[in-house]
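Hey team,

Filing this mostly as a record. A colleague (T.K.) asked me to run one chain through the structure pipeline before their review meeting, and I want the input and output archived in the tracker in case anyone asks later how it was produced. No errors, nothing strange. Just documentation.

Input sequence:
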Amino acid sequence: MDEGTQDKVIPVFSQEERRRIVRDFIIAYLSGTVRINFPSMEAWEQYVKTQHYEGALAKNPVETFAEHTANITGISKASPSEIETSLNLMFGLIAAFRAGKMIEGKFFEESNLERKLDALEERVGRLEGLMEELRNLMRVHRG
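Output structure:
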């Protein structure tokens, strides 16, 4: 990938989408809709090695989950940057737990696809309006 292409690469999920997924997960976890089968520390360390996780993801998953859930939900006093860090880390934990088949239940809103389609339709509508404005301006300037 050259430098010009690298600038154009964006994450699959926006920060807002990651925030929504983490929120949905925590709500499902607290309501009992989702269950995490936390592995033993030995099993987690082995899993971390195979997945090449580092930093906070490599620490005790129960403690890490509890600490960052407390930050995200406001149980602990955390700064806005600490909350963002916790949200991103929790998103990573959710992905790691799901990849390791440690999560039982559903937490991702099915209507998320509908929201994305609605947003896309809205954007297309705005683009159509802008295209019409451009056509009108071109007619005026040519005419």
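Quick notes for T.K.: The chain has a mean pLDDT of 87. Strands lie at 35-36, 103-104.
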